[in-house]
Amino acid sequence: MLGQQILSGLATGSVYALTAIAVVVVFRNTRTINLAQGDFGMIAAFLGILFIKEFDLNYYVMLPLVVLCSMALGVLVERIVMRPIADSDWLTLFTATLGVYYILHGAAGWIWGRDTKAFPVTFDAEPVDIFGALISQGHLINMGWAAAIGIVLFFFFKYTKQGIAMRAVTDDPETALLMGIPVRFIVLLTWGMAGFLAAFAGVLLAPIVYVSPEMMDEVLIKGYVAAVFGGLYSIPGAIIGALMIGVAENLAGGYLGSHFKTATAFVMIVVLLTFRPQGLFGIQKRREI
Amino acid sequence: MASHLKCEEITVRFGGVVACDGVSLDVEEGKIVGLIGPNGAGKTTLFNVLSRFQEADAGEVYLRGQPVNKNSTSQMVNLGMARTFQNINLFAEQTTLDNILIGAHHLCAPPLQSMLWMPQARAVERELTDRAVEIAEMLNLESELDNLAKNLPYGLQKRVELARALAAKPEIILLDEPVAGCNEEETEELQNIIARLNRELGITVLLVEHDMSMVMSICDYLYVINFGANLAQGEPADIQTNRDVITAYLGEEV
Amino acid sequence: MEQRTDADIQDQSPQPTKWDRSAIVRLKARFERQNWAGVLFLLACAVAFPMLPGVEGWQAYTVALVIIYIIAAQGISVLVGFTGLVSVGHGGFLAIGAYTSALLTKYFETDIIIGLISGGLMAGFIGFLLGLIFLRLSGAFMAIGTLGFAFFVGTVVNNVPLFEGREGISLPSNKVMFWEIGDIGFYYVSLTVLALVTLFSYCMVRSSVGRAFMALRDSEKAAEASGVNRVLYRTIAFSISAFITGMAGVLNGHIVNYISSEVYGDIWYSVDILVAVVVGGSAVLMGPIIGGIFVVMLPFMLEELADFAFILKGVVLILVLIFAPAGIAEVLGRPIRNMRARLLRQAGYGGREPAPAETTSVAAAPSQTEKP
Asked: Which of A27, A284, A287 sits opposite C140 (nearest CB)?
């Protein structure tokens, strides 16, 4: 029972992790807390339905297409909305992403309707047995994807030119610019990456929670909390935070009752921030006088 | 004369770097005392320890013989200590007058009375405004009272900082490089002002400064620190001829 | 180089021997009187509104709804405009106010005045407790923390039986003392609260407390060196802000005599109030008023368009951010401010225009790094 709770907690956590990573990447490169992150995924899920149902595409043809569309959406948002106000304070940036949230939410509701839709690809209902713990195939596949993306990101940041440039922008945008790094392009790439991660989060979650304009709202909040948990600057921190939240809320839901499930994340964050205001993996910056 | 501000064996570490390594100094009441040393000697760190902006890893600070290690930063003004900053820290979007008034914050009525505009709070407010104008007049800032701080030229901003510190009615004032970046004229003016504060208002002054001619002419006593430790102390004339000090400045003319 | 520019500037502006501020002080007092006249005129209009011929109860109800939003927005504007802190979770305080008053009314049959006071105090008290945790956090951390708080409140009202979740709590018709008040009476109650809150904000901003808030916003270090207790003043700001929003919540519950988690469990409610402040402008008294009208009236006018209204709201929000970053109130007030600035300049106020960048860079704009 315990093993099973933990396992399905990890599965939920891995979807949170995809969102949390995107929140961290966008925040540390652009100081923007992206409220539209969840809705990128929501749009991706709707597009997934569209591609499969209307165009009769195979799941594995649909996936890269959706990812591309979602990345394009991220890039578009950067070019049209975020770039004109790039130098503003973070509240302005934050509110602008709220505007994007409204637009995407409204657009989805307008085009596809408010009611929830089933995702045409459902996984085998037969659960898989891992060391005595039962887990649904959908969850298992999600974990696999999330892990694969995590590995891809690791190599991207470690070895590719763009990945290293992105880290440089994180550390010090001005110096990066002086060093000849095309900061604007990197910012664009950052938003593209946000779209990329959102597409996976949306499509992976779709078979489990059904598709509606509100499908990602809760995931987004958990993603934020996970990002803050990890200190908002650290990708590994965000991943660990997300998995911890997934497991903790599943345990709370299992042993204390489902009422407690959604509140778990908040209780965790309050306790954490009370003792470590900079997050679990954050660096306590020395006060400059 | 009695000791006004004293610290003993102050040690501050940042990770592996030791910024202050057992520094001690003693500022006598009513004197102008200078703290000098090459760049990176730990002067500003020591200043921050004295004004409770930085926690010392070891050592004690005494204000008029009372240890102040437990006091918070904002309490220091109540104990009669005000300070300025090396990099100007003004309230950029507010007028000179408001900047000076903030300095007198601890003299204002309690928050609740103040925000409900109780009559006694308003009376205090008027009184403080008058005093702020007086201070501005003393520092030749009266024509700048209604200008936004961010629009003032550098030299005047430095003076507004000083005015803000004075508004707190301090008994001792800590000046972190009061004339850095000022031209000769401005330097001379500030120097005269500091001397007047000390003479006429009896304010004890501790200052960090790189402008040696200014330090030598204004200070009654000097402390020299290097690599976070005391190097020498004495009257300006003695310091000028001190071998160690000259070596520390690597031939720089002292 | 830098020093030379300073000297030049000083040479250019003739320095009178003895500065006379009385003209400036007189002018400022005059502007103040004009402001008050304007506010009183607006208030008179608002008071007269329900008495106009042809105005019916439901219209008073609609305007009261706007007023409630304005009050809530004023609560946030205290925080955002003057202390530079941002709360994304003020819907939580709205809910706390609403439920406190609703439960009191249901079980103890209290009137709306007691509801307002207790709802406000409860929200203020919880704001105080949360302030102790959140105010140590830097901007982005605080935003997410407060959003989490709103989410938590939503979960609680959804799941704890006392709050009756989606079933909701129905309230008896509104009373002041023992008299029942209709829509019109409720309108006047809301208007009174708005007037009091506005008066209070005005006084607070222009007192040593408001000065301390702004000092902390512009330079924490210098404020602390001047004896401003950072934790104390930020907690005061947060509590006041929660108190005001809590009162708005009380009104919001009583206006429809019914509250349920359908409304208060929705975290986007919180975000809506913040939008009102950002769109209207935060550091201006008129900001929340204009913002409140925007947030309530736009969906109201476009009700049958539902989702399209959502899109429009997003577009308008983004346009405002790009073209009027300081808010609509700032743009509307610009002609008046320019005129006044000219009059003041003639009297010798603010003789200095912004100096060249290099000379001001040291003290220019608070440089608040977001890194923890």
From this structure: A27
Contact C210/B at CB under 8 A: yes
Distances in Å between the Cα of C59 and the Cα atoms of B77, C49, C55 are 55, 10, 6
Structure confidence by residue, pLDDT tens digits, C6-44: 444 444 444 444 556 777 788 888 888 988 898 899 899
* B neighbour chains, 3+ CB pairs within 8 Å: A, C
CA distance B44 to chain A (A): 8
A283 contacts chain C (CB < 8 A): yes
Q: CB distance from B87 to chain C under 8 Å?
A: yes
Residues 34-53 of B with CB under 8 A from A: 44, 48, 53
Q: Note the pLDDT tens digit of each residue in A178-209.
A: 888 888 888 899 999 999 999 999 988 888 78
Q: List the 48-87 stretch of B: residues with Cβ below 8 A of A.
A: 48, 53-54, 85-86
Return d(Cα A77, Cα A104) in angstroms, integer.
11
What 3 state SS string does chain A have? CHHHHHHHHHHHHHHHHHHHHHHHHHHHHHCCCCCCHHHHHHHHHHHHHHHHHHCCCCHHHHHHHHHHHHHHHHHHHHHHHHHHHCCCCHHHHHHHHHHHHHHHHHHHHHHHCCCCECCCCCCCCCCEEECCEEECHHHHHHHHHHHHHHHHHHHHHHHCHHHHHHHHHHHCHHHHHHCCCCHHHHHHHHHHHHHHHHHHHHHHHHHHHCECCCCCHHHHHHHHHHHHHCCCCCHHHHHHHHHHHHHHHHHHHHHHCCHHHHHHHHHHHHHHHHHCCCCCCCCCCCCCC
Q: What is the CATH number of domain C23-268?
A: 1.10.3470
Question: Closest to B91 (Cβ–Cβ): which among C210, C218, C224?
Answer: C218
Q: Tell me which residue of C39, C68, C104 sits closest to C186, measured CA to CA.
A: C68
Residue A286: closest CA among chain B residues belongs to which residue? Answer: B14
Q: Is B119 on the interface with C (CB under 8 A)?
A: no
Please tell me which residue of chain A has the smallest CA distance to B89.
A289
Domains, chain B, ordered by start: 1-80+171-254 (3.40.50.300), 90-169 (no CATH)
C144 and A262: CB-CB below 8 Å? no
C156 or C242, higher pLDDT: C242
pLDDT tens sequence across B44-65: 888 889 988 888 888 889 988 8
Q: Does the distance separating the beta carbons of B48 and A286 come in below 8 Å?
A: no
Best mutation target among B106, B143, B211 (most C Cβ atoms within 10 Å) is B143
- pLDDT tens digits, residue range A208-217? 788 888 888 8
Q: What is the mean pLDDT of chain C?
A: 81
Contacts of B44 in chain A (CB under 8 A): 289
Please give the model's pTM, rounded to 2 decimal places.
0.85
Nearest CB to B105; choose among C208, C353, C359: C208
Q: Is C229–B72 a contact, with Cβ atoms under 8 angstroms apart?
A: yes
